[in-house]
Specification:
Blueprint (H helix, E strand, L loop, with lengths): L1 H26 L1 E2 L1 H13 L5 H16 L3 E2 L2
Parallel strand pairs: 1-2
Length: 72
């Protein structure tokens, strides 16, 4: 049963990352809270997939390059 619970948590985490990334890309900006969420996930979640890491990197790179902006 623990495997199933872990799997559901993983699916929930994946949807959460995808939802955050999709919202940021649609809006063209990210809030400080979204930035904190993504960096926290990226740095602390060992179960993040390569795809999720690429998505987060894409957002962080966009922010650094000026393609995305912070919005309060």
């Amino acid at each position: 049963m623990q495997k199933k619970s872990s799997r559901n948590s993983k699916q929930s985490s994946q949807q959460s990352i995808e939802e955050i990334v999709d919202r940021i890309l649609a809006n063209g900006y990210l809030s400080p809270l979204e930035h904190l969420e993504l960096t926290t996930i990226f740095l602390s979640d060992f179960s993040v997939t390569d795809r999720e890491r690429r998505q987060i990197n894409f957002i962080l790179d966009g922010l650094q390059m000026g393609r995305l902006k912070f919005k309060d």
